[in-house]
Amino acid sequence: MNAVLYYVIVFPLSKLPLWITYRFADFFYILLITVLPYRKKVIEQNLTRSFPDKTPKEIKKLRNRFYQHFADLLIEGIKNLGISEKELRKRFVIRNPELMQDLYAQEKSILLVSAHYMNWEWMITGQSLFFPHQAVGIGMPLSSGFWDKKINALRSRFGMHVIHAKIVKETFEKYGKESIPTATLVLGDQSPGDSLKSYWMSFLYQETAVLFGAEQLANTYDQAVVFYLPKRIKRGYYEVDLTLLTEEPKTLEWGDLTEQHVRLLEQRIQQEPQYWLWSHKRWKRTVPEDLTSLKEQQREKFNQYFRSSVK
């Protein structure tokens, strides 16, 4: 069934011009605001908690604007499977690629930190086209072996090296030995799996568990950290301004890197909230009882491992 769906519907759709497939998005949007309100309760709850000053009418308007974006996102995700290099370069533009070029000239590997905001799939597919670094993507296998194989093969068709989260160390060490600078894409806004191993901070008026992976990877492998979020120019066209957070992560205090990239995401969400993925259960982790004590323990452990002069 998966193969039939892919070869008969999904892949042919990916080869159609976007102006045609956006008509499907328009129809799907109408369904979302009428008879198929996908995760309506989750979306409204997330929006209400994140924007406590907005009225129910304003929350409903935001929800519908998200649904409109979500419909486009699904179509652009399908297009991503068949988009050509020429079209990808035209529709997804890096405004300051010299930042990455300068780091590459220094043979500096990068953590490219972003979020589930606007269109993240086109960066995954085009990363090797945009930057000189060896592109690396970290992910967990999809439950369907067929879709996992197909999607990863298409994501990597321009040079992205997609790896399992369990072989990050092996991969980084391999490229390090070969003196190949890497740029590893990390989406840092996912809900962590363990409350006690999370970095806790205020985000959108809520105590929030944040993945500490980007900060840990940067310190473990001494990688520079570059942040980006796409900006929508018009339907199907995006621009990216890269922001260097640090070239020397080991000079920063515990939590500084995480605070930086989460605050930048928060600012953008407050400016253009409809483009974040409100349908995911972002605040499903229970806040630990003694948060102050947990933070102190985490800081101590981090400093002992990464900042102690005696390893």
Total DSSP E strands = 11
What's the end-to-end separation, in Å? 54 Å
What string gives the helices and strands in order? HHHHHEHEHEHEHEEEHEEEEHH
Count of alpha/pi helices: 12
Helix fraction by DSSP (H/I, runs of at least 4): 40-55%
Radius of gyration (Å): 20 Å
Q: What is the residue-averaged pLDDT? A: 95
Largest sheet entry: 6 strands, mixed
Give the strand order of the largest sheet, numbering strands 1, 2, ... along the chain: 4-3-5-2-8-11
Principal-axis shape equals globular
Q: What is the count of structural domains? A: 1
Give the strand content: 15-25%
Uncertain ranges: none
- What class do helices, strands and sheet pairing give? alpha/beta
Protein architecture, described:
The protein has 311 residues and is α/β, with parallel strands linked by helices. It has one domain (2-307). The protein is built from twelve helices and eleven strands. The strands form three sheets. It has a six-stranded mixed beta sheet with strand order 4-3-5-2-8-11, with helices on both faces. A three-stranded mixed beta sheet has the order 1-10-9. α1 packs across α4 and α3 packs across α4 (56-80). The chain is globular and about 60 Å long. The N and C termini lie far apart (54 Å).
Secondary structure layout:
Layout: H1 2-14, H2 18-32, H3 40-50, H4 56-80, H5 85-91, E1 92-94, H6 98-105, E2 110-114, H7 121-130, E3 134-139, H8 145-155, E4 161-164, H9 168-177, E5 182-187, E6 199-203, E7 206-210, H10 213-221, E8 224-227, E9 230-234, E10 237-240, E11 243-246, H11 256-271, H12 291-307
Helix pairs in contact: 1-4, 2-4, 3-4
